C-alpha cells in the first residue's frame, strides 16, 4: 500500500467537523449526481474532496490557512493538482459551518463550469 493511500485512510478517520458536514452533502452523488471521493490521493497529495469526472478538488481550510507559510504550501498544492488536471476550490471551515447552502451552490457552479468547458 502506498504512503499516500495510508495517509488518506488516516485522514478519513480524523476528519474535521466541517469536512464531515460537507461530506454528508456530497456523498452518494448527493450534489446533482456528481460523484465525490473524500481524502483522495492525487499527485502526491491527499485532496479533502475530489470529483474526478469534473476535475475539481474541494479543500476545506481551517483558519490557520491564512498564515504566510500555509498560503505558500496551499499554492504549491494547487499548482501540483493543476498539473494533474484539477481545479482547486478552497472553502473555509467557517463557511461550511455557517453557510452550507452557499457552499453547496459555489461547488455546484464550479462543477458545472468544469464539465461544460
What does this structure look like?
This protein is an alpha+beta fold and 117 residues long. The protein has a single domain, classed as Endonuclease, Chain A (3-Layer(aba) Sandwich). 50% of the residues lie in helices and 21% in strands. It is built from five helices and four strands. Strands 1-2-3-4 form a four-stranded mixed β-sheet, sandwiched between helices. Strand 2 (45-51) and strand 3 form a beta hairpin. The chain starts with a helix and ends with a helix. The mean pLDDT is 89.
Biggest sheet strand order reads 1-2-3-4
Overall radius of gyration: 13 Å
The averaged pLDDT comes out at 89
- Tell me the name of the CATH homologous superfamily: VSR Endonuclease
Number of strands: 4
Which topology does CATH recognise? Endonuclease, Chain A
In the CATH hierarchy, what is the class? Alpha Beta
**N to C succession of SSEs:** HHEEEHEHH
Helix content class: 40-55%
Question: What percent strand?
Answer: 15-25%
Domain count:
1
Q: Structural class of the helix and strand makeup? A: alpha+beta
Question: How can the largest sheet be summarized?
Answer: 4 strands, mixed
Q: Give the overall shape, derived from the CA principal axes.
A: globular
Protein name: DUF559 domain-containing protein
InterPro entries: DUF559, Endonuclease_DUF559_bact, Restrct_endonuc-II-like
Domain DUF559: 3-112
Amino acid at each position: 500500500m502506498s504512503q499516500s493511500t495510508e495517509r488518506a485512510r488516516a485522514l478519513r478517520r480524523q476528519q474535521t467537523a466541517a469536512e464531515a458536514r460537507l461530506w454528508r452533502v456530497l456523498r452518494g452523488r448527493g450534489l446533482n449526481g456528481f460523484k465525490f471521493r473524500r481524502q483522495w490521493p492525487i499527485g502526491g497529495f491527499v485532496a479533502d474532496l475530489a470529483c474526478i469526472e469534473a476535475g475539481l478538488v474541494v479543500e476545506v481550510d481551517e483558519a490557520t490557512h491564512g498564515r504566510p507559510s500555509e498560503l505558500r504550501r496551499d499554492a504549491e498544492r494547487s499548482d501540483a493538482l493543476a498539473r494533474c488536471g484539477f481545479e482547486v476550490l478552497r472553502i473555509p471551515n467557517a463557511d461550511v459551518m455557517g453557510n452550507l447552502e452557499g457552499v453547496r451552490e459555489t461547488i455546484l457552479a464550479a462543477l458545472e463550469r468544469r464539465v461544460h468547458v
